[in-house]
Amino acid sequence: MKYIDEYRNSEIAAALVRRISETVTRPWVLMEVCGGQTHSIVRYGIDRMLPQQVELVHGPGCPVCVTSLEMIDRAHAIAQRPDVIFTSFGDMLRVPGSRGDLLTLKGRGADVRVVYSPMDALRIAQENPARKVVFFGIGFETTAPANAMALYQARRLGVKNFSMLASHVLVPPSIAAILQAPGNRVQAFLGPGHVCAVMGWREYESLCEHYRVPIVITGFEPLDILEGILMAVRQLEQGRAEVENQYVRAVSRDGNRAARDLIFEVFEVGDRKWRGVGSIPKSGYRISYEYREYDAEKIFEVDAIDTHEPPQCISGLILRGLKKPCDCPAFARQCTPQTPLGATMVSAEGACAAYYQYGRHLDTDGRAAEDCAASGGR
């Protein structure tokens, strides 16, 4: 298909790999921040095309995966209420909380509904004035404009039975947290093109300057990613640390100003806890005071939640780029898409799901590959 196949051209991909090989002179560790990029890397074997000196590690770029266990358990507590219609995108239904998932609650009689837009949830609220309709609003800056619009419209239309359980997370603070963490190995980042299409890249400039790391805003197709890697390696080899924009067809320095204005009309920046990572200061959006009547956390008073994370799950280490899915002893054994222990195996953007979906857990004989971990997933 035009505009897709041209970014998957194998001859151009091979040429980009050759240029990376000609450029690199020493080992470098790069992190892709976006889960969509992770899936493209694993699906097309991009990490296996690269010279041995270039290692890709996977970051916390899956919003489903990093939604905190406390927030998942709060969603479950609200969804169990008989007066509530709980709405969510489908990829949240099987994310494990401390005691099951939303799909299990639905099977037990909870009114849990899959929607394709927060505006669908608002419509359900208008159609069911006697019920309390809650939308589970998760995601990075990418989904924040649509979620903000739903609250803006609810207020404008005077819909009183609609609220949002908001759990937005922000990319720049997560990059800073990774760089500050003990044992960090990441030396450059492939930035999330879709986030920057909304927010621009100004926030990343101070990160490059302060931490002396290159950040290349990158798209999602194979040629996008390979070109982003080449640009990052060139910066590393030349001793530069700048924001560069590979994704020029979609991203500008200032992003989408109308979307940003709407976000800050409805949300404000606050601390946010990330699953497997911990609390990161000023790393999320919360519903502002002016929109407090639509804040499900306050309406349903679900702050006091006891959580329980499976001890064998290493999702947190994977999300910080310290481990890869094949390093987990439970991967493809106790933990599969059918029996997930952690969110990184459930989400469509999760690294563990990508490794499983594209066969990284199998060797040439079709058996579970014990040597996968030893090879670092390459």
What's the CATH H-level superfamily name of the largest domain? HypD, alpha/beta domain 2
Q: Structural class of the helices, strands and pairings?
A: alpha/beta
How many DSSP helices? 17
Round the mean pLDDT to the nearest integer and report it: 90
Number of beta strands: 11
How would a crystallographer describe the biggest sheet? 6 strands, mixed
Order of helices and strands: HEHHEHHEHEHEHEHEHHEHEHEEHHHH
In short:
The radius of gyration is 21 Å and the shape is globular.
Structural write-up:
- The structure is a single chain.
- This protein has 378 residues and is an alpha/beta fold.
- It has two domains: 1-312, 3-Layer(aba) Sandwich (Rossmann fold), CATH 3.40.50; 315-374, no CATH class.
- Helix content is 39%, strand content 17%.
- It has helices spanning 10-23, 35-43, 46-49, 63-66, 69-79, 102-107, 118-127, 144-157, 171-180, 193-199, 202-211, 222-238, 257-266, 296-300, 315-319, 351-357, 371-374, and strands at 28-32, 54-58, 84-88, 112-114, 132-139, 162-169, 188-192, 215-218, 243-245, 267-274, 278-287.
- α6 links the parallel β3 and β4 (112-114).
- It starts with 9 loop residues before the first helix and ends with a helix.
- Mean pLDDT is 90; it is low at 364-371 and 373-378.
List the topology elements:
Blueprint: H1 10-23, E1 28-32, H2 35-43, H3 46-49, E2 54-58, H4 63-66, H5 69-79, E3 84-88, H6 102-107, E4 112-114, H7 118-127, E5 132-139, H8 144-157, E6 162-169, H9 171-180, E7 188-192, H10 193-199, H11 202-211, E8 215-218, H12 222-238, E9 243-245, H13 257-266, E10 267-274, E11 278-287, H14 296-300, H15 315-319, H16 351-357, H17 371-374
Parallel strand pairs: 1-2, 1-7, 3-4, 3-5, 5-6, 7-8, 8-9
Antiparallel strand pairs: 6-11, 10-11
